[in-house]
Protein 1
Amino acid sequence: MTMINDLDRFERVKKSGSIHYAMEAKKCIADIKDEVHSQLSSMEYFYDIMENIIHEPESSDTEEKVIASMCIHVPVELIYAAGARPVRVCGGAYATDQVGADFLPAKTCPMVKSTAGALYLGLLPGRVKPKLVVNPSSCDQKKKLGEVVSGFDDEFYLLELPPNKDTEESREYWHRVVKRFAKKLESVTGKRITRRNLKKAIKLVSTAQGRYRHFHKLRSQAPVIFGKDAILITNAFFFDDLARWTEKLDELNREMELRIEKKKHVVHENAPRILLTGSPAIFPNLKLPILIEKMGGLVACEEYCSSSRMLTDSIAVDEWFLYDMIPAIADRYLKPSTCPNFSPNEDRIRKILSMIKEFNIDGVVYQSFTGCQLYDMESITVGKAMDEINMPTLYLESDYNPDDSGQLITRVEAFLESVKNK
Amino acid sequence: MVRTKHIFTLICLLMVSNSLHGQPIWLSNRIPADAERSIKPAGMHHLASESKGRGKVKIVQWLMQGERVEDAAYFVQDSTTIEALVFAPSGKKVEHKLDSLNQRTILSFSNPEEGFYNEYVVIKKVSGDTLYYAIAKGELLNHSCRNGHAHVREMMPYKVYPQSIPFEIVRKRMVHEDFHYFVSSGEEISYSILLNGEPANGILTKLSTEKGWINSRRTDDSGEVSFQFLQDYFTPWQEINNREEYTYVLFAKTTIPEIGVFEGLPYNYIKYTASISDAYRPAKTFYQSMFWSIIVLLLTTIGTILAVYYYRSRRNRPFKEIIFDEAN
Amino acid sequence: MKRIKQYIDQANLSRFRTYFQILAFVVIVYGGYLGINIGDKTPAFACPYSPGSSGTCYLVAVQHGLHLEWSSLFGFRGLALLTGLGTFVLFFVVFNKAWCGFVCPFGTLQDWITKLRKFFGFRFSRYDEASFKKLKIIKYVFLVLLILIPLAMSNSFFGLPKVSDDMSAPFCQICPGRTIAPLLVGDTSEIFVDFTNKTTMVMSVLGLIFTALFFVGSFFKKRFFCFFCPMSALQYMFSKVGVLRLTKNGDNCTRCGNCSRVCDMGIASIADDIVSTNAVVDDCMMCFKCVEACPEPDCLDVKVFKGNIFSSTSEGFFKRYGESELADQSKK
Amino acid sequence: MKYFIGIDIGSTSIKVVIIDEDKKIIAKGTAATGYHFNENTEDVLKSLFAEQGITEEDIGYIISTGYGRKLYKRSDENVNELSANVAGAVSMGNNGVPIRTIINVGGQDTKVISVSEQGEMQNFVMNDKCAAGTGKFLEMAAHNLELDISEFEALHMEARYEPLPVNSTCVVFAESEIISLLGAGHKRNEIVSGLHYSIAKRIVRLAARAKVQDGVLFDGGAALNKGMVEALETELMRKVYVNEMPQMTTAYGAGVLAIKRWQKVQDA
């Protein structure tokens, strides 16, 4: 059943939606490359794949199976092992946000609306047609989204995340969920997960993580890249071919190493180093990091599930057999995760504190989308933790519409000033 | 049963009276029941010793007489002269004492060194035209693991003193023997008889054990004789104590024509009677069975494998529910 | 210096440990034939029942040493016991519990049995948390019995009759070491059921059961016997003052659980405990697989006095667990 | 004699302050923001110039602040209203008590700023995207009660001890609630004091997120209304100061900053 009454309205909305989406993407890349720009040559690759994010790639082999995932808790290793390609379809565009708003309650989180709109219009990165949309039950609105949009032609699969990740029961429960998911993947893709291809998949993802961790270390050594570029890179990880992404990141690492030696920094020393955390910045909604860096701050690092949270914890497998690899994969997505849907979530606070120490952060900007209760609630505990180390924290609430930068500018400018004279 | 025992002792007394000097003498490590409390078996080889405070431990050995070990009589001190000789493992003579402890002749000396102490008691008596030359010998091993086991290999071989003891029995060492070795029944023990340091063939030897088992054999032409320690008794299962030690003695006697004078009396022949006493234990392996151990091993292995298989197959069964006790 | 440290941090410690274990196995089990003698206070299972052994496991000295009346125990004879303990502690303190992880021949044997299982592709078992806590106590029960029985053999406790001498070296009689060590040098003399009397019968059957359990157990659970070994309980009393230390820096830990997954002993506290710095618990055998598997830089460190000789690094981690063939091409 | 102009282009009204070199207020004026706020600002400036007889050359430096600060062409520099507010409040001073917290209830937003001893902005909290607890709320209430905001003060004093609980989560719903209260026969003064207390509660809850320390200054348009001040004091349980022209503080701050920038330009 289509939500919107007649079919041609759907076609019209789809066409205008994709145009708006493409324009938004172009505008975001243009904003990133405006006068405050890191001029890293190896970033060009990331700029153009992100710019035509929803264009049909020329060499798309048709029979390739794609599994759409809506959160970091989807084990991508299993998807690669089952011979499919994972694409993360969290929405970041205002265009699809408006489409999603048609059939979702007003107070829904903009990312959920945007994802729903993208799924409805089929505007997924690379215009892929997913065989299965895997939806972990992390935030509540995303969990219920599965039912609301189940009317579309994509098949939805719920991955039940335990609410508490410390107890052994929840770990065992999650292991069973992941094993059932592996079986589901095998039936969807028709290819059996064997020891060899799972090991190859783990190593593939782990190599990418290795490169990113090196990138993360370089960023902590010297301000040689802007935060907005770093977030762009991890957003590219959503849908790009992993081997190519790893190679390109490797080139970027080498270029950054050169810059560190030549001390070619993108900002002067006393630019305030900001930690971004809270609701994730998903391309093309990078307005906050862009704004902060236009105002003279530097996003030194970000604790987002669209960036470091996705790529930092890697798998160590003791015995390369399925009976040890699958629990290892399951553990990797549960135990170290700092997603606020788990309670208690001291890990996130410890992660933020260790990032503050590693990147010697001057100020923390905590962004939560309007309607996102998880990050709103967590802002209390994080706020308390920040007070203890009297770290200036700016709490912002914004959503995807690009024209609320008036309030943002005031708040960010005042915050940067208060950080400077601390 | 009781009556025959009496007759038996009568005969024994008769024998004792006329050929006192014919009875062989030997040194015993068994502590008589009425010995004072301070004499106790000490050390790894349970040598009867009297401890007078720290460090001053003195070995005490009793001189016995008679061929039947189980009811041999204690040697009663009489006019005949008795000499004793004790050599330390290093070959040095050790100061010793021969005296009597409530009418029994005892030989005592202290044994600080590690290794075999050779103790000899010699009785010489001329009667008729023969010199009766009785030699009782004992090799007492003194060892404590605390002194380590580095020196064991070179202290192992036996030592002989032909210049002072003309006729001697020596227990040949087993190949893998070390200081932890106990003669145990079922083993083939071989001895060699030395006359003036040379192995003597054709000597009649007699082995007599505490359990009454007596066997005699002649030495072969290389002067060696070996006995299979027969498990000559089978104690009922409840009484088995594989730590119990029983004494056994090996006697040898020979007569050689030699003319000489001893204590003013001339003699034409010398009749040597030599003895060596030691302890043996029931063999450890008597009551050990590898057959049963294989059964136990197999049972446990198969049992555990089945248990693991069953435990692992429960994974296929659905999730184990939490059970609540209905008793109110 | 820095490059050496970097090389060590990224080295494949498990391979080094396997070779070291082989070397230690030969030295301890066959050292006796080569004239090596490492004394009778060894903190590892150098089992004296096997003629080839180059030393004696300290538990033997403990059980024989304690076979004393109270008078001499607290007299001069007891002094020998203390000096023995002193030598053991001095030996032990140097490598701390790495004696179990690197040197003990029976630990090595169990690791080889694990490799055999991996060859056949059988799944390993792990204790869940509840049974882990319960079974953990068994090694302390063994240690207490191992100390009390010899004492009870030479003194009567509360007027009870003395324990019979057949129970001498009680733990040795039931220890799988007694039966396996001579087997390793081809001497099957220790494999028997001793019918001499009830005590020896029970003890020898128990010994055989433990031997069978040792083999079957370590086939299904990694380092099965080390979890019940009284030597590790005895060592743990002195592990706090060990020279070799394994420290954890809780701030860098993201609780990803890698360390407790690769831990052969199945210790969970290494991953969940982010407060205490000394990461060595009583079951730990300091094989340092956890340090290899930790992706966080400087989170787990192996320290000697103050300097750390081997610490977890992300480069090392990715070299061991991460790199795939793909990475080698891009490295050209 | 050089003059310095601070212009605060707020969401509802424009405030202009002219001060001389030693920060003495020469002239001040307000006007509605409206759509042509550029022209409105020019008119106010012209009227003040004419009144004081100031010519173009006498003007040293102009700083604009507030929402429209970037859009006003003639200003030499623009500063965000938080730092302007702090500068104004600190230099105005309030009879010797050091200011450690500023609560500014403007037209469209409510700001709570905590100030360090050295008089610099330490931390601040702003209400999120909702007009509840701002000047707009009072404006709308006045419209419904057919009253003028200036009368609120007297009405509040009449019923200062029995405020009606008015829920102020949302400006629009509050309107229907006021009408229903009027229908139920409640008197206007109870409703007005109820409004004041509900806004005060909201502001105190917001302020709790930034450390509130003694030395609280209440400024912005709503501070003119004494009833509002009293309500805030009782809810906050702290002494609340109001300087003589609370609405002009931010504009005055902009002027003070203009002097500082001008001096820096002169020295360079």
Protein 2
Amino acid sequence: MEILITGLVLGGTYALIAMGLNLQYGMARIMNLANGEVLVAGGFAAFWFYTAGQISPLLTVFIVAPLAFVANWLIYVIILRPLVKRAKSRGQLEVDSILTTFGLSFIAVGVMLAVFGGDYFSYSFLATPVQLFGDTYALNRILAFLSAVVICGALYLWLNHSRTGMSVRAIAVSPDSAKLVGIDVPRLSAIAFALGGAVTAVGGTLISSFLTLDASTGVLFTLKALIIVIMGGVGDVRGTIVAALMLGILETFVASVIDPGLTLAAAYALFVIILLFRPQGLFGRKTT
Amino acid sequence: MRTDAPVLSLRGVTKRFGGLVAVNDLDFDVAEHQVLGLIGPNGSGKSTTLNLISGAFPASSGTISLRGTPITHLAAQDITRRGISRTFQLVRLLPSMNVLENVKAGAVFGHRRRWGAEADSYAMQMLEQVGMARMAHAPIGQLTYIDTKRVELARVLASDPRLLLLDEWLAGLNPTELEEGIRLIKSLRDQGRTIILVEHVMDAIRSLCDHCVVMSSGAKIAEGTPEQALSDPEVIRAYLGDDDA
Amino acid sequence: MLEVQGISVSYGKHRALEDASVRVAKGEIVVILGANGAGKSTLLKAISGICEGHVSGSVRMDGTDLTDKPANRIVEEGIALVPEGRGIFPDLTVQENLTLGAYSARARDEEAGNLERLFTLFPKLHERRRQVVRTMSGGEQQMVAIGRAMMSNPAILTLDEPSLGLSPLLCKELFQNLKAVRDTGIGILLVEQNAKQSLAIADRGYLLENAHIVHEDSAAALAVDPAVQKAYLGGAAAKPVRSAPVAAPASAPRTQRPAAADPAAIAAAAMQNFAPAKRAAVAPPPPPPPVQAAPPPSRPAPAPVTPPSPAATRPQGIQIDDLVSRARATSAAQVSTRNAQQPRRDPPRPKLADRTTAMPDLGNSADRLRAALDEIEQAARRAEAYRTDHNRTPKPTGK
Amino acid sequence: MTLTGKDYKNISVVVILLALAACLPLVSGAYLLAIGVTIAMYTVLATSWALFSGPTHYISLATAAFFGVGTYTTGIGIEYLPYWVLPIIAGVLGAVMAALVGLATLRLSGVYFVIFTLGLAELVRQVITWFQNFSGQKGLYVLTEITEVHIYWQLVGLAAAVYLVGWLIGRSRLGFALRIIGDDEEVAAHSGINTSRAKVLLFMVSGSVAAIVGAMLAPRYIYIEPLLAFTPMLSFQVVIMALLGGTGRLWGPIVGVIPFTFLWEAISASFPNQTTLLLGVCFLIIVYLLPRGFVGLLDKIRSKINAAEAYS
């Protein structure tokens, strides 16, 4: 029971990160390997605001989100759009964007190292225990989970019930058709990419309240987010959430029963199984 | 009557894409040395049928057999190795290679595999056959439209296929090119090759094919000599639409 | 009013469309006929700004220049395309597809009204509005596609082969629907292979052959034009009456190839489809025996420059045989002439108007129709006989 | 096999160059030799990487995983077996691992492959750390008689072998098949090529070579621990060097390796804290300015000169 709840809580925050990546990869069609660095940057912001100004991470979210949105929008428009235009095929865009975002991730790591140094950073925020179903959990985790639920819910509603959200999904489903109904595909792709970045950064802010981060942990989160997105099915919101919860529970299980050092190995095992038996993801459909 | 199995036979072949039935319970045979025309209006499932035969994707049900041996669930490369080679509706060449190397690709990995000097000379022979020998060392980017089609045909011929699938090989040619193209396919016919021809140029069908299978909405609606098939009322209806008059 | 002026499109070296001009007014259906690869889809893509090739020429909508504008701007100007492959969002519901259809600013104010109108036009869409489009049948998906396009409140609706993959019954329904759309005041530009049905609902039509627009006429005139038939069934189909008695006796051994005409002649026959001025010249292989004595060839058939003076010099009864014998007599000569002439075919091309007058008068269309129907019946009998005798794909019914 | 005069010329040039390279330890000091080892190591790694990734366009980030497996083979095996067996065992282990990874991911699109290989080193590292936790040790000592010079010669020999294998593959049906796959996989399948088998085979070659390099370099480290053996930076550096040189030719990667090694030395010396950042900048420079590496640049210049000559 304890594993299940801790897992769900962890999975909830993973869902938020993966949602960010899914917006970028599923909707804007950019495989962003610098995603984890955005997350760490969000965590850094929270750390800085908290230690310097005693500002609660829950408030920092409202500063981080618009900043990350603008930054990611600029990255898309300035750096990535030329690649989209230059690419003759989906495959070429994939290779180019992978290399470019790798470069960006290194640059981000380098900048963060220069600014904050290579140390782990953590701060103590709401580390008070709460009782739930007879077990104790840290309040910050629960809060982070609840915030993640709120944000995921809002995103889900936005994607499914707002006009812009629907057009973002339309781009994911069929960019060619989207043009024909008058959607400005380049503009909306930039928005989806920027929004994805903002969601990821918010995820980072929340995660930093209970996990220890350092400048180079970003890539681990990128990996986990990628595994979740592929498991859930690219561009599929429900799949992302389900896969994130699965991964959260699995990791918690492995960490508490076998060895905390094996969480990534466990995630990979799950990933391989999915690749072998359902390469299109849990909810994805086969393309013919 | 016939003791030997046909080169290719389709029985109850069906392909569904989601809810759409692209090919519906299709039966036909191709005999040795026969040129079979597969015709029908756009979207009637001809190209899908060709893709099913060549193994580009698997049939949902039914069997396809090559000389009596089922090949329904084989991968494309295994089907090619067994002797079915195809051209593509939109010509597909290997852009980083020259003309000869493109053709060699067929000779090296096809039905009868050759290597080294033998592959080179065989590929050259095929280029001569399609009239491209003088361009053997030209890069692909310099070719005219019909020449790209000829190179693709040479690549397919170089694999020494038992059955040749030509997917709208004459489409998009201008009149002069069309004349050359028809002459080329006719020369293949005269060599006694077994061919399935998906084609829209009706005059070519009439003159090149021994036998025609007409498809509409995924199903076979007529079969016979070109004259018979094309004068079938069902066929006229499929092409010209329902006559309201 | 949509006006396309002298538009040319090339994909690399391949010229897909040359100097095409088309206009569509509101409240009319204009159909573009042509064989595969003639450039029909390219024309629609170029109009909607989604063509990947190099486009030159001009597209104007009510006087606003739309050339080189991005696709979403063109939608705002009131041109909606239903592309081949439908252009819908298969993973979304019908309702979502329609809402997305009204994405453009020009459509938003009218969204509710348009939706209501659409649901009256296609009640089925209302029934199925919560269904995911991918799970619907081909005909229903096509309906969604048209509905989606109509939701953008277009002045002109362009459709690329909407009947593709639909059963004859659904086709009929589709064309009735298009007529209903036209009656709401929308102009429709339709690219079709289904000549008869599309001409039945159209007001005007263009014939596109080998990247050129070769003919423009009213739909009624095109419907009886043998060139239209030929564009689809090739040379011999235009004269079924003649071929009937001799064509393929049922006992013919099937391994026997049809009398092998020389490739030049085959190509020549095929090329009749491309060369407008020679539309009357039919050289079908194998040539049927002349029914009447053919007059000696007055001049080589393929000479394309001056159209033959109509009717007077060509009594229609012997016309086809006449041409057949001429074609036979000159087939060898044709190759060289043609090789020399074809590349230069464009400059001396007569203007559209000239060509329409050059159309051979085929007499009373009712007579023709009767003849064609007779022929179809005969053919049906023949086909039936053939099937029972020679059923080589043994089905239970054949035995 | 028939060799043309041009082949003989190329072979002799390569043999002479390798012989010259082998003479380096005789004339140089310790510092230059250390750089020589680094260059030889990256040449082998980048060339074998490009053997697979060049024609197939799959970006493998698994070099560090294979390398680490090789290092650990030596680290564990040195106590029980003579040294010369270990690189062979490492090669076999690398090939087996590559086969498993390839079979699972090479059927799928490139992105899956990248993601999988990206985490592979971390995955193997976690598993090894976990095993070590049982035995209670943190690292392994590799104490041998093998000196830097020996390592250098081994690597030069391995480089010769890699060039030979690459050259043979280029002349073989497998190499031809890979070029076709790189151009158009569907055509390849319809020409009768078993595309996944060809890709997996090449990936095995590449993985096996990386593992051998790891095994050969283990004595240099003396003390190995998971974090050192599986450093992900290695994978990225190999990718960047190979891309900088160009993957279109067998000799492409070395053209990237040599300048990059010196550049990297300079960067590490002058900006020890900004290496990551500058590596990122290198990635961007390659993608935007040198998409086909130095080789592509040379080809472009050459074709321009040819065109200019054709006009004059």
